[in-house]
Amino acid sequence: MDNSPLLGRRVEYPTRRDPLLLRVVERQENRRALGIAPALFRGFDAWHAREAGFITARGLPVNGILKIVYPADTPLIIESKSLKLYLNSLNMEPFGDTPREGIPLFLSAAREDISGALQSPVRLALFTRPPRAPLPFDFGDDYRLLERNVARTPFTLYRECPDLLLDAPRPGGSLRARTHLLRSNCKITGQPDWGSLFVRLTASRLPSPLSLLRYIVSLRAENHFHEEICETIYKRLHDAFAPRELAVTCLYTRRGGIDICPSRASHPGLLPALLADHRRLTRPTFQQ
Fold first, then answer.
1. Phi (first) and psi of residue 90, to 5 degrees
2. What is the pTM of this model?
3. What is the DSSP string of 120-154?
4. Neighbours of 83 (CB within 10 A)
5. Phi, psi of 14 (to 5 degrees)
6. β-pair type (42-55, 123-127)
7. Is 250 a catalytic residue?
8. 114, 78 in Cβ contact below 8 A?
9. pLDDT for res 288
10. Are residues 23 and 11 in contact, defined by beta-carbon separation less than 8 angstroms?
11. Contact between 229 and 222 (Cβ < 8 Å)
């Protein structure tokens, strides 16, 4: 199987199911560079594909949002453009006589193909209509917005600078912070990826809100996959503050109809439960 990256390449859109379109990338390259040990965190990657669907045997289109969740300990991740192309290969594939019959068949095919590419089980669900009561995301207003009241503050560094985290640290306790200023760039194409970041930290000392924001802004010109950015932030906070509790979640803006939402935490109970549940469709955040 040709597993060369599809990002940045001109390709024809498929019209029939083709699992060979799926390309994978090893997680370990960035983890080796940062010295991330397997036991450093627990976590998962949640994907929302908003251009998913099929046709019934009678030709009726069935469209929806496909939510895919798999654990952070898989050796591989899916390349996003290849997932888009693969899902497009299902758009004209017939499943069942009716939508009710077709959805389980569609999900079975997608689960088989994506799990096969990842060499790991995945959980997924197709949402063909909005939930009756859209679930809010797990995070509430108790997460401090970092960019509030910083309009006159200078920001000068746009390549990752972990030393920024240690500028004027504060006494220990707990910190819950969020920002919608997360930006990094695709590792392959260099195209910008925008998103929101949520951090939960309990330690004997803490970063100041401004130093944390300056560090996040310093990622603005970095070229990494979404999962790597999340793990980089986690590792830098872990190394700087030796926290008792730490959770980092990145909710990236959709590109090509797909958003990727990695979450990493020191303890499973800190992971956002609604986002981790493939059966629940959460309300998008501001940047999504």
1. -95, -10
2. 0.93
3. S--EEEEE-S--SSPBPPS--TTSEETTTT-TTS-
4. 26
5. -75, 160
6. unpaired
7. no
8. yes
9. 77
10. no
11. yes
Rounded CA separation 52/29 (Å): 30
pLDDT at residue 1, rounded to an integer: 41
Listing from the earlier edge strand, what are the strands of the sheet with 192-206?
Answer: 123-127, 61-71, 42-55, 258-265, 245-252, 192-206, 170-185, 144-145
Which pair of tokens denotes residue 183? Answer: 């930006």
- Provide the residue ranges of all domains of the chain, joining segments of one domain with +: 19-127, 144-271
pLDDT below 50 — which residues of the chain? Answer: 1-2
Q: What CATH architecture applies to the domain 19-127?
A: 2-Layer Sandwich (3.30)
Tell me, what DSSP letter sits at residue 276?
H
* Beta pairing partners, 115: none
Q: How far is CA 114 from CA 52, 69, 107, 147, 274, in A?
A: 14, 11, 10, 38, 22
Residue 116's SS3 state is helix
Distance, in Å, from the CA atom of 250 to the CA atom of 197, rounded to the nearest integer, reads 5
H or E element in which residue 87 lies: helix 80-89
Q: Which of 186, 230, 250, 261 is catalytic?
A: 186
Spatial distance between the Cα atoms of 254 and 128, rounded to a whole number of angstroms: 18
Residue bearing tokens 């990256």: 5
Of the candidates 218, 104, 233, the one whose C-alpha atom is nearest the C-alpha of residue 158 is 218
Each residue's pLDDT tens digit, 78-119: 999 999 999 999 999 999 999 999 999 999 999 999 999 999
Could you confirm whether 2 is annotated as catalytic?
no
Residue from 18, 138, 141, 193 carrying the catalytic annotation: 193
The CATH class for the domain spanning 144-271 reads alpha beta
Contact between 202 and 244 under an 8 Å Cβ cutoff? The reply is yes
Instruction: Say yes or no: do domains 19-127 and 144-271 share a fold.
Output: yes
Which tokens is 204 given? 């004997």
Query: 165 phi and psi, to 5 degrees?
Result: -65, -25
